[in-house]
Amino acid sequence: MTLSPLFDFIRSLYGKTKAETIPLHEPKFLGNEKKYLLECIDSGFVSSVGKFVNRFEEEMARFCGSQYAIATSNGTSALHAILHAIGTNQECEVITQSLTFIATSNAIAYTGAKPIYVDVDLDSLSLSPSALEKFLHLHGQKEENHTINKHTRKIIKACVPMHTFGHPAKIEEISRICKEWHITLIEDSAESLGSYYIQKDQAIHTGLKGLASAFSFNGNKTITCGGGGIILTDNQKLAQKLKHITTTAKIPHPYEYYHDELGFNYRLPNLNASLALAQLEQLPKFLANKSKIAKAYEEFCLTHGIDFISARDGTKPNFWLNAIKLKNLEERNAFLEQSNAQGIMTRPIWKLNHQNPAYSHCQHDNLANSLFLQDRIVNLPSGVNLGYNSSISIK
Ligand SMILES: Cc1ncc(COP(=O)(O)O)c(C=O)c1O
Fold first, then answer.
1. What percentage of the chain exceeds 90 in pLDDT?
2. What's the burial of 254, exposed, middle or buried (CB within 10 Å: 0-12/13-18/19+)?
3. Which atom of ligand 1 is nearest to the CA of 76?
4. Ligand 1 atom nearest to CA at 107
5. What CATH code would you report for 33-279?
6. Do domains 4-30+282-379 and 33-279 have the same CATH topology?
7. N or C: which end of the chain has fewer CB within 10 A?
8. 4-30+282-379 has CATH 2.60.40.180 classification
9. CA dihedral in degrees (345, 351, 353, 358; nearest 10)?
10. Domain residue spans in the chain?
11. What is the pLDDT of residues 265-318, one digit of tens each?
């Protein structure tokens, strides 16, 4: 594959010369970020209590269409808190994909549970319903209200699919299988803010099908507040528990300290929430802009014989990170070498989680698609682009 036309195209897309670096996904602070931050500082409420945390939670719940939202210090803590709250512990196992950022596995391991890895589908890049079903038929044993792993005798407590790069997982099918096997569905939606799937002509936001979901506002995400996360759920009891345990499980009292269970210092600080709220106000414009960038990439790739990862039918991804599929590992490595040497930041998809030492002992299926994709997928620069066909302006 001749790479220079694609590199030239990326430079023209982002309006950069050969001497300039093009980041993979840089944050853009174009709205009320500074105003809200100053308001927050002036109020003195910079820590875990303050109006911005509550406002951010309300606005996130409204934007995504969930009943409750609980803001956390990051996406990993959001996922950990959910798994802890549903009772995941060392007697449990949790099914997820090996083709994910390591935080998915880490959150599972923090509870004492072990991840089990099943394969992804080539079209969604996310947990494969058929691989899940196959795994459960081979290794699962249904008990009255749960499923155990026949080999380890541990409870398969939860299933955590991840919406890879913002492409919605096949969540309807995964949900049906989880219900059949009494496994709690938790969505790792860290990358999928603003991603929808279509059901009966209705666009449904990712993260609403499972019992709860976790989002991330890390510096590289579609919107960021430096570090932050949020949990969405429609379950009132779970929402109350999550708010409680993410704020050290302290029983409210004017001066006494009493914590009625194990709690975590996972609340999003007001300072970060002020940024997050301002970023959320920008989200519709960011999404529109990112959709145009993805379309431009798609058209270029189509005319140049490059395999672009498009939206799957029935989905409307946020195109957090655009991706292409190269022919083999050799071509992938050459692409990464040359693009990065020329100041165009590109990245491979993650090393499969079970290939990292902390998870090398975990059970997995043959992961054929995950291994195939690992050798071929790379991400292209995907940040919001002020110069490109954009209605976004700097204030
Ligand atoms: C798939 C996935 N899960 C979890 C996380 C964890 O989020 P955070 O970095 O906010 O802890 C991230 C992103 O960083 C992610 O991409």
1. 96
2. exposed
3. 11
4. 4
5. 3.40.640.10
6. no
7. C
8. no
9. -100
10. 4-30+282-379, 33-279
11. 999 999 999 999 999 999 999 999 999 999 999 999 999 999 999 999 999 999
